[in-house]
Amino acid sequence: MAKQALIEQRPWLLASIAAATLFYFLSDNPIFEGTWGLLAKGASVGLLAVYAAVRVPPGKHRPDGFLLVAVLALAACGDVAIELDFLTGGAFFAAAHVVAVVLYLRNRHARPSPVQKLTGAALLIGTPLVSWLLSGQAQIAVYAAFLGAMASAAWMSHYPRYRVGTGAVLFVLSDWLIFARMGPLDLEPANTVLIWPLYYAAQIMIATGIVQCLRGEQPVR
After folding, report:
1. Distances in Å between the alpha carbon of 124 and those of 77, 114, 118, 216?
2. Residue 178's closest CA among 118, 69, 90?
3. d(Cα 113, Cα 165) in Å, to the nearest integer?
4. For 20-57, what is each residue's pLDDT tens digit?
5. Full-model pTM
6. Distance (Å, rounded) from C-alpha 35 to C-alpha 118?
7. Is 21 helix (H, G, I), strand (E, B) or coil?
8. Distance (Å, rounded) from C-alpha 117 to C-alpha 20?
9. pLDDT (tens digit, 9 = 90+) per residue, 112-136?
10. Which residue stretches of 35-135 are H helix?
11. How deeply is 159 buried, as exposed, middle or buried, from its count of CB atoms within 10 A (0-12, 13-18, 19+)?
């Protein structure tokens, strides 16, 4: 029954999960390399953008829905672009983080706890610092400043931390595994096995968590 409801009511979400699963398990298959792999990777988060566009109700929450769609669409472009040129992909993701910060700042928690404030500050400062230590590259630290701002703003928003805040942290962890490949710290096979699952889990948790709040299906804090 739950599976049937998912297919009937949220087909774009189901299609996104299918594309992400397909990319993860078949990305190393020679038949799947090139165009087909890029399509599956881009569709994974791209279909989440469609899901958000369809599910966000009209009315006062529409601007936030538009920002969420923009975040996911930019990330989907980054997923494809990074396979072709690392800097271009990073630019798309940085733009996505900027839009996400705008979204989260529009929805700040009215009374954040001291622990929430401390965690937000740690994400803001620690994300670029750890990224630089892992990669040894200044340009990675610059990008990670956008990443840390996104994660910090998500954690400080009124969206549920166990969905949106945790998703933002998973995004940071996924990128840290990417950056570790550039430095002296050898984390294989964790990099190969975990980067995509952590990243996609982050995106789907953020997308569904925000959409459910905008629809009134999840209480905001």
Report:
1. 25, 15, 10, 29
2. 90
3. 14
4. 998 888 876 665 566 778 889 999 999 999 999 998 87
5. 0.90
6. 44
7. helix
8. 33
9. 888 889 999 999 999 999 999 999 9
10. 35-55, 62-84, 86-106, 114-135
11. buried
